[in-house]
Amino acid sequence: MKQQLGKVSLLLLMMLVIAGCGKDDNGPTPDPPTPGGDVTAENVTYANFIGALLQSKCSSCHAGTGPGTTKWVFSGYSSVKDNLERVNDMVIVRKLMPQNGSLSTRERELLKAWIDKGGPQ
Predict the structure, then answer these.
(1) What is the pLDDT of residue 26?
(2) 16 lies in some domain
(3) Which of 66, 61, 46, 67 has the alpha carbon at shortest distance from 98?
(4) What CA–CA distance (Å, rounded) separates 61 from 99?
(5) What's the domain range around 109?
(6) Is 79 contained in some domain?
(7) Where does the secretion signal sit in this chain (predicted)?
(8) How many CB atoms lie within 10 A of CB 50?
(9) Does residue 65 lie within any of the structural domains?
(10) What is the Cα Rg of the chain in Å?
(11) How many structural domains are present in the chain?
């Protein structure tokens, strides 16, 4: 009797799980927004684009014990703001950083616009 009750309970549980896996009628799920998707040269800030860009493209060498920390340490907004001319020279003008050349044209344009605006937070 207990074994049969266990099988019935398991069957009911499986039916509930399967019923919960049905398709919603809410339409298609939209694609997640692209980071910086709504960011333009006019509204770019450290908070809405530049911080994440520098974290992903610079911190592997210029943070912690990375090899680039002997030249410059990325430690957030103030470390960039205090070195805008240097960042502009190395990344925008001379295009020496990042060393793997991994900035897209859009990323480079937004970084330049941000620097030209004085590096708004």
Answers:
(1) 47
(2) no
(3) 61
(4) 10
(5) 46-116
(6) yes
(7) 1-19
(8) 25
(9) yes
(10) 25
(11) 1
And the tokens for 15? 């039916």
Q: 77, 79, 84, 92: which is closest to 46 by C-alpha?
A: 77
CB 63 within 8 A of CB 69: yes
Q: At what angle do helices 105-116 and 51-62 cross, to 10 degrees?
A: 100
If one counts every other C-beta atom within 10 angstroms of the C-beta of residue 112, the result is 16
Give the C-alpha separation, 57 to 82, whole Å: 19
Rounded Cα distance between 61 and 1, Å, is 67
Q: What does pTM read for this prediction? A: 0.68
Q: What is the DSSP string of 43-105?
A: T--IIIIIHHHHHHHHHHHHSTT-GGGGT----SHHHHHTTHHHHIIIIIIS---STT----H
Q: Which amino acid is at 41?
A: A
In the chain, the amino acid numbered 95 is K
3-class DSSP assignment, residue 11 = helix
Answer yes or no: is 37 within a domain: no
* Tens digit of pLDDT at every position of the chain (121 positions): 667 766 766 666 566 556 555 544 444 444 334 554 699 999 999 999 999 999 999 999 999 999 999 999 999 999 999 999 999 999 999 999 998 878 999 999 999 999 999 999 9
